[in-house]
Amino acid sequence: MTSNQKIVILGAGPTGLGAAYRLKELGYKNFEIYDALNHAGGLASSYKDSAGFTWDIGGHVMFSHYEYYDKVFDKLMGSDFQLNMRECWVRMFDSWVPYPFQNNIRHLPKEVTYECLSGLVKAQANGDHKSAKNFREFIDKVFGEGIAKHFMLP
User: Fold this and answer.
1) Distance of CA 114 to the CA centre of its chain
2) CA distance 59 to 91
3) Model confidence, pTM
4) How do the domains of the chain map onto residue ranges?
5) Are 63 and 73 spatial neighbours (Cβ–Cβ below 8 Å)?
6) SS3 state at 8
7) 3-class DSSP state for residue 95?
8) Contact, 22 vs 33, CB < 8 A?
9) pLDDT tens digits for 130-142?
10) Rounded to whole angstroms, how far apart are CA atoms 116 and 139?
11) CA distance 43 to 59
12) CB 48 within 8 A of CB 39
C-alpha cells in the first residue's frame, strides 16, 4: 500500500472499531471510519428513550475464545461492563435439561438419548448440510432427526 492511499472502514460497530484499533496499533494513520449513524456502536449500541428506558439495538453478547480480542476488550472496557452467567433449562419428559440442549441430552430418558445420539451420529457421518434446501432440512442434516424432533422443531 502506498503512503497516500487511505483505508476506509465502513461501520462503527465493534468490528469496525476493532479494525481501527488494530490499524492504529500497527502504526497506520491513514484510515477513516464511516457510519450511517452519528454515533459508534452499531448493533451493539443502546439508547435511552424520553421515559428513561434503555433499549438495546442488538444483542450484547460476547463469546470470544481469542486471546488477543479478550486482552483488547479488558484493556478498553476495564470494569465498565456487566457479566451475566447464563443458567437456562429446558423442561421436557418430566425433567429439567440444562441448556444448550444438544450438549445435555444425557439428562433425557435413555430411549430419547439414544434417538438423539444416533440421529446426530448419522447426520454428522453424512456431512451434507450444505445441500439443505430449507431450514428444516438443515436442522435434520446438522443435528439429526432425534434432536430435531425433540428440541429444534415445534
Assistant:
1) 29
2) 25
3) 0.55
4) 7-77, 89-152
5) no
6) strand
7) strand
8) no
9) 889 999 999 999 9
10) 12
11) 7
12) no
